[in-house]
Amino acid sequence: MATAFVNGATIHYEEMGEGEPIVFIPGGRSDKEVMRPIAEMLAADYRCIIYDRRNCGASDVIIEGEGSDQEIWADELKALIEHLGLGQAYLSGWSAGCRVSLLTAIRHPQAVKGLLLGWVTGGASAAERLAHEYYGQFIEAAEGGGMEEVARTPFFAERIQQNPANRERLLGMDVGEFIAVMRRWSTFFSEGAHLPVIGATEAELSAIAIPTIIVSGDDDTHTPQAAQNLHRLIAGSEFHAPPIARDEWYRLQDAGADAVARVRAERAGPTFKEFLKHIRSKSG
After folding, report:
1. Are 7 and 75 in contact (CB under 8 A)?
2. 3-state helix, strand, coil in the chain (%, to 5)
């Protein structure tokens, strides 16, 4: 596994395959492993990169910066593309990875060749749940027991286990500053509850003018309506109905992240491959 120092953080990444580059962005706060199945599937024909965003996986925990953490991730991804000398890359992600892909295309269009997206997040229910999962629970921990309590939460304890230097970075933070940053980042979701897709306006999405494929989810967080909204706004985008039905999706959650990653790759991977093949044929 390689590392890159970009935008003030050490980022862990891995490459496989050769050809046009595709960067895969995980959902949630998951590490790069959840994107390994689909990256390995496409690595026979493409240069595939999986990586841990800051504050995720083995990369550095850095709770600071202007704007939302989603925007920080988008800027970080653009810097990683530059660091690796990719020029332009396809971006592929679902859920949070979909949001980061879209924001990168909006903020840094010169770095993005196309979008391979799945499980689009939208709606007030998703915004409320994710705001607490990603920020609210850690605000409560900090208020109740300071940064030591934050470090003991399962999420940050895992970040420390994967990268022991993260403990010192966390414990060195001022509690008030940590809470202030978390509250600021949380507004990305509270203010995005009524947007067509959490994190982006109609005007921003309508300005995206690159090849885009959208595979819909079918659950309370990744609603078919959010995917349809995105399809409607990105001219020429290709839409695919949910490859995992709602009942099966919730059963998969009980089976664990590895099972979800494998089934997502099995269902979405061939669709992405065909889409990329079609783009290649049109470009000659």
Report:
1. yes
2. 55, 15, 30
The angle that helices 175-190 and 137-152 make with each other, rounded to 10 degrees, is 140
Contact by Cβ (8 Å): 51, 76: no
pLDDT 10s digits, 87-104: 999 999 999 999 999 999
* CATH fold for domain 2-126+189-283: Rossmann fold (3.40.50)
Q: What digits encode the pLDDT tens for the residues 24-58?
A: 999 999 999 999 999 999 999 999 999 999 999 99
Q: How far is CA 76 from the centre of its chain?
A: 12
Any idea where the domains of the chain sit in the sequence? 2-126+189-283
Q: Which of 228, 209, 254 is nearest to 112 (CA)?
A: 209
Asked if 2 and 15 touch (Cβ cutoff 8 Å), the reply is yes
pTM reported for the whole predicted model? 0.96
30 contact partners, CB below 8 Å, separation of at least 6: 56, 57, 257
CA pair distance 245, 243, nearest whole angstrom: 6
